[in-house]
Design brief:
Helix content is 41%, strand content 21%. It is an alpha+beta fold. It has one domain (4-81): Glutaredoxin, CATH 3.40.30.
Length: 82
């Protein structure tokens, strides 16, 4: 199974839905709440977003080597299947 990593905001309803999507399907994921992270972690997240050619917007979901910005369960499913 592909590794799933989420960058989220603790109060963002779309971020909560993204976490729920993976949790309800028993898909293991890691997440970091950007707004609760320390300065070094925030800088790492900003750099990771830049490396993927994406603007920093939440939720920022990495599935394997692919990135989905925003809550998009259809894209999540498609990337998990491939």
């Amino acid at each position: 199974m592909k590794k799933v990593v989420l960058y989220t905001l603790s109060t963002c309803p779309w971020c909560m839905r993204a976490k729920k999507y993976f949790r309800e399907r028993d898909i293991p994921y890691e997440y970091t709440d950007y707004d609760k992270a320390d300065d070094d972690t925030r800088e790492m997240i900003r750099e990771d977003c830049r490396l993927h050619g994406e603007e920093m917007s939440f939720p920022f979901v990495k599935i394997g080597e692919d990135v989905v910005v925003g809550y998009n369960p259809k894209k999540y499913s498609k990337l998990l299947e491939s």
